[in-house]
Write a structure and sequence with these properties.
9 helices; 273 residues; alpha/beta; 6-stranded mixed sheet; 5-stranded antiparallel sheet; 29% helix
């Protein structure tokens, strides 16, 4: 049976992005490009939507950097393999050469990309690649093919990412002629639909036009946890996580009667001790 490796590529520059797409098609026919993201926020959102097994992430992207996306991916229940795409002189290159992370340099050369692909093929996680056809065991095969991101990779990401984030700015919500400023500390959760994002806070709720994925770069990931593709919650208000059945989990929040869903990808955030 022909197998495919569900793969995401992310680069804000069209030229390098399409060069990588063409090189992968030429060198690794088992790779199936399920998304080609044009910035870090889109890459994160596309990962949640398509659940790739392999990601090629440019380090320098607007919104969220490739490193930030990689760190978020590492927290998923089934994180994909990650290869960073970087340039000569990048500050991360020396660290990558220590061998903790796969990387390729821009412009991508076939010989180096082929070496990277060979390494990926050898990893156990790719032995369980997703079948190419409409196999009913698609999900199970995908889960069987995933593995946790190596501890060395996580430690490297922690070293490379900024130690401190800038202070979170108030959320600005228009209400008629008035613009309401909502302090992030007062926000219980964000919930998005196809057009708007609902902001539920201590004193009520408001609606903004900013998409959830675009809020991520301004909010502290240690405080605001994404628990569903459409829900971002202030962890300081979470009082409990309840498993309803094998696949369903809900959150209860202090001062709020609503229950928030936790998707399968994020249920690993609540393991108990």
């Amino acid at each position: 049976m022909t197998t495919k490796i569900r793969t995401l590529i992310a680069d804000d520059e069209e030229g390098p992005r399409e060069q990588l797409r063409a090189a992968l098609a030429r060198l690794a026919p088992e790779i199936e490009i399920v998304a080609a993201s044009v910035n870090g926020c889109d890459a994160w959102d596309d990962c949640l939507a398509h659940e790739p097994q392999l990601c090629f992430l440019d380090i320098r992207m607007p919104g969220m950097s490739g490193l930030e996306v990689g760190q978020r991916l590492s927290q998923l229940a089934e994180p994909p393999q990650v290869v960073f795409v970087t340039a000569y002189g990048d500050h991360a290159l020396t660290a990558f050469e220590a061998g903790a992370v796969d990387y390729v340099l821009k412009p991508v050369e076939d010989a180096r990309l082929e070496q990277c692909i060979q390494r990926l093929r050898q990893r156990q996680s790719l032995n369980g690649a997703v079948p190419d056809d409409d196999d009913p065991e698609h999900g199970a095969a995908h889960r069987a093919g995933s593995s946790a991101m190596p501890a060395a990779t996580l430690e490297l990401l922690r070293q490379l990412l900024p130690a401190q984030r800038p202070s979170m700015r108030p959320i600005q919500a228009s209400q008629g002629r008035e613009i309401q400023l909502i302090a992030p500390d007062d926000i219980l959760f964000f919930q998005s639909d196809s057009r708007y994002t609902r902001v539920v806070h201590r004193d009520g709720e408001a609606w903004i036009r900013t998409a959830l994925k675009e809020l991520l770069s301004d909010l502290d990931p240690g405080v605001f946890w994404q628990v569903h593709r459409s829900v971002l919650v202030n962890s300081r208000f979470i009082t409990s996580a309840t498993r309803v059945d094998e696949n369903t989990m809900q959150l209860s929040l202090k001062g709020c009667d609503e229950k928030l869903p936790v998707s399968r990808q994020f249920q690993g955030l609540f393991k108990g001790q």
